[in-house]
């Protein structure tokens, strides 16, 4: 499928009526956003992420002046790999009542999102990047991710690198 940025509407046929993605200059709109739990079609969000290779989920969180919250002066940006890990959507039922979910991690995707995080930090005057992981338990998958993050950190000496479990 080709999807030039021409403003035309593209309909996805994922077996569910109503998923529309509209391309306007630098804007994408989609819907519906709900996924049935435990049955029915796969996540529409996952389908859109995979179709358009939306690998970096960027979530800024800032305190708003005049709004009392538990913490003051919050200014954090979370960047999550959006196509792999627990979000790869690879799972199956081995036997009735036993389900296996696969956490897929690759060097390429880890490198791409780590580079994105460091570039984002540099372009937005951020002082550091923190890699959040569970390499203490998931030694191979999260260990690979963490090693790639450390490798990328060497290329950005102006940005402090931290790790957090």
TrEMBL record:
Gene Ontology cellular component annotations, sorted alphabetically: mitochondrion
Signal peptide: none
GO biological process: isocitrate metabolic process; tricarboxylic acid cycle
GO molecular function, one term: isocitrate dehydrogenase (NAD+) activity
Key word rRNA-binding present: no
The protein's Enzyme Commission number: 1.1.1.41
Gene3D superfamilies per UniProt: Isopropylmalate Dehydrogenase
SMART domains from the UniProt entry: Iso_dh
UniProt KW keywords: Oxidoreductase, Tricarboxylic acid cycle
Residue intervals of the Isopropylmalate dehydrogenase-like domain: 8-165
InterPro entries referenced in this protein's UniProt entry, alphabetically: IsoPropMal-DH-like_dom
Keyword Oxidoreductase: yes
Family: Belongs to the isocitrate and isopropylmalate dehydrogenases family.
Stated name of the protein: isocitrate dehydrogenase (NAD(+))
The organism's taxonomic lineage, starting at the top: Eukaryota, Metazoa, Ecdysozoa, Nematoda, Chromadorea
């Amino acid at each position: 499928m080709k999807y030039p940025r021409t403003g035309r509407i593209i309909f996805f046929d994922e077996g569910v009526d109503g998923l529309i993605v509209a391309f306007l200059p630098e804007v994408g709109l989609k819907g519906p956003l709900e996924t049935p739990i435990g049955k029915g079609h796969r996540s529409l969000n996952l389908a859109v992420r995979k179709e358009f290779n939306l690998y970096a989920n960027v979530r800024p969180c800032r305190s708003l002046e005049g709004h009392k919250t538990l913490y003051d002066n919050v200014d954090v940006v979370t960047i999550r790999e959006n196509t792999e890990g627990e979000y790869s959507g690879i799972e199956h039922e081995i036997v009735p009542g036993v389900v296996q979910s696969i956490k897929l991690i690759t060097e390429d995707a880890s490198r791409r999102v780590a580079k994105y995080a460091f570039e984002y930090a540099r372009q937005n005057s951020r002082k550091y990047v923190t890699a959040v992981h569970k390499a203490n338990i998931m030694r191979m998958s999260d260990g690979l991710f963490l090693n790639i993050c450390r490798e990328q950190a060497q290329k950005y000496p102006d940005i402090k690198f931290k790790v957090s479990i």
